[in-house]
Design goal:
Number of domains: 2
CATH topology of the largest domain: Porin
CATH class of the largest domain: Mainly Beta
Number of helices: 9
Distance between the termini: 89 Å
Mean pLDDT: 75
Low-confidence stretches: 93-98, 126-154, 182-193
Helix content: 25-40%
Structural class: alpha+beta
CATH architecture of the largest domain: Beta Barrel
Number of strands: 8
């Protein structure tokens, strides 16, 4: 392509097209970036088509004015008449010079980057991420007009920024299994007369791990934390674990050496609330061993306000585990 242009360099049209190749390519690249920015705003910010176009055009104007590309293009075209002799010697075609380049042609071609820079220096809309005037005047759909009077959109006050608040404790996940036995339904809350002493256990091993909600890695993390845990069974039927992230378990049913226990605990911060539920079945075996079946579920709710925008998330994990205990 360059050789074809060089061969026809005596004609003004090929010469002008050759000069405009660089700024035209840069302009085409900027237009592609403009379309990509509009698509990104639509996908990432869930913006309307008009808002995405406004923000992408504002970004393009800022890049044109502050970026070095168009300034370098304009400077090169402005200084090119001084370099035409060197260019002619470098691009000689079969030993003959390519001819004399017209300074007027390069001055004409410089009008393209000049026009682009003028567009970039014009007053632009708000920068990406800043609220526009249309956004500040937009009414709040949840705000009702005063009773007994009419309200126009222009006279409505701006929507106040939401204040941070502590989320409510999450509710128990639906479909979570639990241990129950129809045979002992009438003995709920009863205690075995022989289990009235303090007993201590330690975890020998975790024999099985089954994720109910979440990944296997999350369930395995719970199992790892229950390894080598010391358990204490109080005379009042309370089972507690030292060093494990479990709530205190209280006996609900005792029947034929099998004890059903349940526990619940909620921890809160300024932006989150996490509730842990545990259903357990403690079965005394021969000798000094016991089997502890656990169903553990945890739900975390987060509510945060960042840049006057509310963000909420809920994460639930659940696992079923079987532990082999040894009485100490």
């Amino acid at each position: 392509m360059r050789l074809w242009f060089t061969d026809g360099t005596e004609q003004p049209v090929p010469q002008l097209l050759l000069v405009l190749l660089w700024p035209a390519a840069v302009l085409a690249e900027n237009l592609l970036d403009l379309g990509g920015a509009e698509l990104a705003y639509r996908l990432l910010d869930d913006a309307t088509a008009a808002d995405a176009t406004r923000r992408s055009v504002s970004l393009a104007q800022e890049q044109l004015a502050s970026g070095p590309t168009w300034w370098a293009t304009l400077g090169t075209l402005a200084a090119w008449p001084l370099l035409t002799g060197v260019w002619a010697r470098l691009w000689g075609w079969r030993g003959r010079p390519v001819g004399t380049f017209s300074p007027a042609l390069y001055a004409t071609s410089a009008l393209l980057p000049v026009g682009i820079l003028v567009l970039g220096l014009l007053p632009a809309g708000p920068k990406p991420g800043a609220p526009s005037q249309a956004d500040s005047r937009a009414p709040d759909a949840t705000t009702a007009p005063p009773a007994g009077g009419s309200t126009t959109w222009g006279s409505m006050p701006p929507t106040p920024c939401p204040s941070p608040s502590r989320p409510a404790a999450p509710i128990r996940p639906k479909g979570l299994p639990s241990f129950h036995s129809p045979r002992v339904a009438d003995t709920t809350g009863s205690a075995s007369p022989t289990d009235n002493r303090m007993r201590s256990f330690r975890t020998l091993r975790v024999t099985s791990t089954e994720p109910l909600s979440g990944s296997l890695a999350q369930a395995q993390d719970v199992a790892d934390r229950l390894t080598d845990v010391h358990w204490t069974l109080s005379p009042d039927g309370t089972l507690s674990a030292s060093g494990a992230d479990l709530p205190e378990l209280r006996t609900a049913v005792v029947h034929d050496g099998t004890r059903l226990l349940r526990g619940e605990r909620t921890r809160t911060t300024d932006v989150s609330a996490t509730t842990t539920w545990v259903d357990a079945r403690l079965h005394t075996q021969t000798g000094r061993t016991a089997r502890l079946d656990l169903i553990r579920a945890a739900t975390g709710v987060t509510h945060a306000v960042v840049a006057c925008r509310e963000f909420d998330s809920t994460v639930t994990t659940a696992a079923r585990l079987t532990l082999q205990l040894e009485e100490r």
